[in-house]
Amino acid sequence: MKPALPLTALAISVWLAGCATSVPMTGQTRAGEELRQDVASHLRMLAPVTVDCPPPRKVTAITASTGDPRAGAPQRSDAVVEIWTATVCDQPIPFRITFIPAVSGGTDFRVERLKP
C-alpha cells in the first residue's frame, strides 16, 4: 500500500510552509496588501545578511513609516518613498523603499539599506 502523500512531497510542503511564514508588520504604508507582502518577502531574504549575529538570522518584525524624514524626496514625481525597518537579532535595520508606477501597470519597488 502506497502512502497517500510521498515523503518527498511532504518534505517540500513543509519547506514551502516555512518559507511562507509571515512576519508581524506594523506601521503605515501606502502599499496595497499584495505589494506589501512582496516588499516584506524581499526584506525577509535581504535583511538577515546585513547583520553580524549568530544563526538563525531571521526577520522578527517589519515596521513601515510614511513620514520618516530619512526617506528624502523621491527622484520621480510619481514615486512614493517610505522607510521600512526590519528587526533581525533585536537589531533594527532600516531600508528606504521606493515605489514606482510600472509602465505596464502595477508598481515596481526598489530597496536600499540605510545606515542605522
Describe the structure.
The protein has 116 residues and is α+β, with helices and mostly antiparallel strands. The protein has one domain: Double Stranded RNA Binding Domain, CATH 3.30.160. The protein has two helices and five strands, in the order αβαββββ. A five-stranded mixed beta sheet has the order 1-2-3-4-5, with helices on one face. Strand 3 and strand 4 form a beta hairpin. The longest helix is centred in the middle third of the chain and has 14 residues, at 33-46. It is globular. The termini are far apart. Residues 1-20 have low confidence and may be disordered.
SSE topology:
Blueprint: H1 7-19, E1 25-27, H2 33-46, E2 59-65, E3 80-88, E4 91-101, E5 107-113
Parallel strand pairs: 1-2
Antiparallel strand pairs: 2-3, 3-4, 4-5
CATH topology: Double Stranded RNA Binding Domain
Low-pLDDT residue intervals, each spanning 5 or more residues: 1-20
Total number of distinct structural domains: 1
Annotation field: number of helices: 2
Largest sheet: 5 strands, mixed
